[in-house]
Every structure is written in C-alpha cells, then in structure tokens.
From TrEMBL:
Alphabetized InterPro entries for the sequence: AIR12_DOMON (IPR045265), Cyt_b561/ferric_Rdtase_TM (IPR006593), DOMON_domain (IPR005018), UCP037471 (IPR017214)
Keywords: Electron transport, Iron, Membrane, Metal-binding, Signal, Transmembrane, Transmembrane helix, Transport
Binding site for heme b: 203, 239, 272, 308
Gene: AIR12
Cofactor annotation: heme b
Signal peptide: 1-22
Entry protein name: Cytochrome b561 and DOMON domain-containing protein
C-alpha cells in the first residue's frame, strides 16, 4: 500500500469521527454568536459540554451548550433552575427542528411534567441553534439576577418531537444524573447526585434479593429437605426464616416503589407495577397461610397444601419475571443481569439434582415398604 493510499484512508477515517468531539472543551471551537468563551466544561453525562462567558457586573451570561440528540429528529436542552436541583422549576431552553425544518430554540418554564412552550423567568437575547455533524448547539445570552455567581444547571437530550413538544427522554442513569451546580466565576461544575436514581437502585436491590433470591431458596428447603427424616423439623424453620425475611425485605422494596411512583407521576411502568402489586398481595396471603396452617392430620390439610404450594410457586415465577423487568428499566451494567442469570442457572441445576435425589429416596422407600409388606403376608414366613 502506497503512502498516498494510507493518507487517503486516514482522511476518510477522520471524516467518520463524530463531529461532536470537536465541540468538547479539549478541542478548539467557534460559535456564530460568540467566537470565543472564557470558560468551558465537559459535562459528565450525555456527551455534552457548556461554553460560557459571564459578565458578573451586569449578570449577563453568554453561553453555548452542545450535545448529540438521542435521535436524528430529537432535541437537546439546557436549563437553569433557580428553585431546585432537578427538572421541576427549571427555566429551560430546548432546541429542535421547527415546522419549517430549520433549527430553533423554544423556552419552557417547567412547573410539571406536562411541558409546553412558555416564557421563562430570565430574559434572553440572540437565542439560536444549529445541527451540524450529529450535534445540536444552543447559544445566546441570558440575563440573571444581580449577584448571581453559582446556579443549578440541568441538561437533557431526547429522541423525538411531537406537535412541537419534545417527547419524554429516556430514564437511564445518564439521563437522570444530568444536573449539577455551575460556578460561573470559577469556571467549575459539579454533579448533583440524583436521589431518585439512588432510590431506584435501592428498590431494585431489595426486590431482587427478596422475590428473586430469598423466596426461591426458601422453596428449596421445603421441597427437598423434608424428605430426610434427620432434617425434620429443621427444614421447616429454614423455610419459614427465608420466606419471612424475604417477605419483609420485599415489603421494604415495595414501599420504595410506591414512593418512586408518587414522585414520578409522568412515568409509568405498567407491567412492572402490576406484577409488583400482585406479588405483595400473594406474599401477604402466604404469611396468613402460615398462621392458619392446619395440623398434619387435619381433614383440610390436603387443600391447604394445594393452596400454599400453588401460591408459592406463582410468587417465585412472578418474582423472577419482575426482576428482569426491573433490570430492563434500571438498565445497569451487563454484569448485574449476567450475575442474576448465573444465580438462576445454579439454582436450577441444584434444584434438578435435588429433584433426582428426592425421587430416588422416595422410590427406594416405597420399594422397601412394599417388600416388607410382601414378606409379612407370606405364609411361609409366619
């Protein structure tokens, strides 16, 4: 391959690199409204950056926000929140293609999750946007309150716009943690940890441990240990301990889910929610079943066993299904889902092995019992 061929390939390769890397603070950049800025921060999520110059005497902020949208027909936004650290209360600038196909900026004073274009609390000027090489840019100037030096900033990206309203963004950790404090004087920004994301993670861990791990393990104790006479009544106490602890942890996880639902009125995970409610109801029935368990020789014990076993196995199946639904919502690193799959595979292998052992023990006992009956009924042995 000649030097000219290598040079041509390098040119082609460099042209394929997403142009938004040229908008990061480590690379030179220019904007139509303001050729240079005195400060720049690469924001920690969504491949975004903020360039700015702040005139503290006049409280005037010259800025340019850049980020790749989540889709070709998507949107990007940057906001200052004077009252909090999240989306609600933010004075937002959102860029997307307008009805004429050109890029434009709309202002949104976000007071609830049903957003609509509205004036914001800060005066603005020279707002504009463009979309070049897969990156949307918002630039202009904003007039802040006198004496302002630190602000709460929020940024976001979305995949689509419908009827001039941005469609809801995704709820990945990157999207949920796209906010922080911006020191306009020192040129520094810090990330504000999202309490909702932390609560979602706690909710996921509690429910995975309870419905997805402890309850299936408790079922193994009841199913496979009680055939061994030496394990009676230890198997019962192991079973009750696992199920009771699992139910208690599950109730805690269910409670965090209710709290998350009350704080996220615009977000609905219908299947996950309904399965969770069903699990809580069935789990509560199992606790009452423990309190109302008839004696072994009671005439209703047979029916109680059918009820208890059917509800129990239903809870295990629904719990595993809901764990995977929760993982798809949280979208954690692949190692978490892989770890749970490995646990289920190990659990299934152990259950299969114990099932074989159980049947061997049961069949041997039946065979031994039949032999004894036959020998006892043989007249020659009388």
């Amino acid at each position: 391959m000649s030097i000219l061929d290598v040079g041509f390939l390098l040119i082609v390769f460099s042209s394929l690199i997403p142009s938004f890397y040229s908008q990061l603070c480590s690379a030179p950049s220019s904007f139509p409204s303001h050729p240079t800025f005195s400060a720049c921060n690469d924001l920690p999520t969504l491949s975004s950056s903020l360039h700015w110059t702040y005139d503290a005497e006049n409280a005037t902020l010259f800025f340019a926000f850049t980020a790749p949208p989540a889709g070709e027909a998507g949107w990007v936004s940057w906001a200052i929140n004077p009252t909090g650290v999240g989306m609600l209360g933010s004075q937002t600038l959102i860029a997307y293609r307008q009805d004429d196909g050109k890029m434009g900026v709309q202002t949104f004073n976000i007071t609830d999750y049903a957003i609509k274009p509205s004036p914001i609390d800060f005066a603005t000027a020279d707002l504009a946007a463009d979309f070049v090489g897969g990156v949307m840019r918002i630039y202009g100037k904003m007039f802040l309150t006198k004496g302002t030096t630190v602000v709460n900033q929020v940024w976001q990206v979305g995949a689509a716009v419908s009827n001039r309203i941005p469609v809801k963004h995704e709820f990945t950790p990157a999207n949920m943690n796209s906010k922080g404090k911006l020191d306009l004087i020192r040129g520094q920004s810090t990330v504000t940890l999202d309490s909702t994301t932390r609560n979602r993670n706690i909710h996921g861990i509690l429910n995975a441990v309870s419905w997805g791990i402890l309850l299936p393990i408790g079922a193994i104790f009841a199913r496979y240990l009680k055939i061994f006479r030496s394990a009676d009544p230890a198997w019962f106490y192991f079973h009750v301990a696992c199920q009771t602890i699992g139910y208690g942890v599950g109730v805690a996880g269910w409670s965090t889910g209710l709290k998350l639902g009350s704080k996220s009125k615009g977000v609905r995970y219908t299947d996950h929610r309904y399965i969770g409610i069903t699990l809580f109801a069935l789990g509560t029935l199992q606790i009452f079943a423990l309190l109302l368990r008839p004696n072994k020789d009671h005439k209703y014990r047979f029916y109680w066993n059918i009820y208890h076993h059917s509800i129990g196995y239903t809870v295990i199946v629904l719990g595993i299904i809901n764990v995977f639904k929760g993982l798809s919502i949280l979208d954690p690193e692949n190692q978490w889902k892989l770890s749970y799959i490995i646990f289920l595979c190990a659990y299934g292998a152990i259950a299969l092995l114990l099932e074989i052992v159980t049947w061997i023990v049961v069949l041997r006992r039946k065979s031994h019992k039949s032999t004894k009956l036959y020998d006892g009924s043989n007249p020659s042995n009388a």
